[in-house]
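Human: I would love a firmer grasp of how sequence relates to backbone shape in proteins. Take your time, and here it is.
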Amino acid sequence: MHPREGWSEGGIRRRVPYSEESAISRRQLLAGGAGLALAGLLAGCSSTNPAGASSAVPPLPRNTPHGAIKWPVYVDNKPIASGLSPEKGATLELYNWVAYINEAVVKSFCKKYDCKYSITTFNTIEEALAKLNSGELKFDVFFPTVPVLGQLVAQKLIRPLNHSYIPNITNVWADYRDPGQPFYDQDWQYTTPYSIYTTGMAWRKDKVNLAPSWNMPWEGAAYKGKVAVLDDYRETISLALLRAGITDLNTTSPAQINAAGRALSELSALTGVRIDNNDYTDVPTGKTWIHHAWSGDMASAASYLPKGTSIDTIGYWFPADKKGPVANDLMVNLTTGSNPVLSHLFINYMLDVNNALENYSFVGYMQPLTAVTPHKLAKEQLLPPQLASTVVLPEYFRQGLFQLELPPAADALWESTWNSFSKGL
């Protein structure tokens, strides 16, 4: 499950300096719902080149970033030529998660390039892929997740990038643009990064007298009814694995997965744990005191503090050894789009530091740009210094743990383990 799954349209979104006296709500309440499996999206994917030879697309590496992928570029799906002018009288069609881009940034892009825009949203990656595969809807720029990249390449749904249109890639961490990087798309042939985030622990420092760790929820017996984990089968089973010292978050071991399920049942008995994705609202308001959480959500926590509650009461933890979940979303150019030049220019525009900061002010999820540091975000009054731990640093990408696609049988076991736990609550 993606942090944006279940979001609804609307809500207040504007860039404002952080103020404890006048916090502005930037989000709408999530609708709950169990995570949906991404199993098997890459299994059996293949494509046929014009000569008729079948070229199997390899699956993504299961334990990143130690195995890198160089995707094929097909004869009938090559990058656009260099030096082309932006399309005239165009409407740029964006396909993105709900509430995951600052429309003000899109408007400024269209003002610069004299075009119109349309933003179509989706709630789950399965929904997005189904619509793309139907051929009924045609978009220019899409914002997918890493685990579905192989399918998008194999089915020629995305166009290889012409790097000459994206000079702002120099603003991105070297981990994404150095030769052979990033691990999931060597030499960024098809993708540029959009957002990056970690999964850690959030807590109320004024209510909880515990040192943060993966074991923190299990230590919360004294806080019964005030403990919550994310409504996400991969994230929460991974939490139980990490508590046991297991850092393979793509494990296929039945013994490890079943043990994680038993640990979650124990957690339920100890704390009456809740399952929800309301970390960003429930910790600031005090409904929850210990919450398994996403960094991008907790970056917005100040906006939900009741009047008179100090930001000093909110904590977010990601381990110092970087052995925790890290994920990033992508920007890609769809082959069905009518505006391939504008698509490239838009991706480039989103990699501009000022535009990225403006976008962050709305979504709370940062982009992996070298200039976007805890100091910069605090200086721009976009993030209180007390929540600097929500900022993702380059070493997190290098050393963190990515959750990628699982073989179908293993994914089924992960999901059945999750269902046994979650349906009992």
Observations:
- Confidence is low (pLDDT under 50) at residues 10-57, 60-65.
- The radius of gyration is 21 Å.
- Residues 287 and 318 are 22 Å apart (CA to CA).
- The first strand starts at residue 46 and ends at 48.
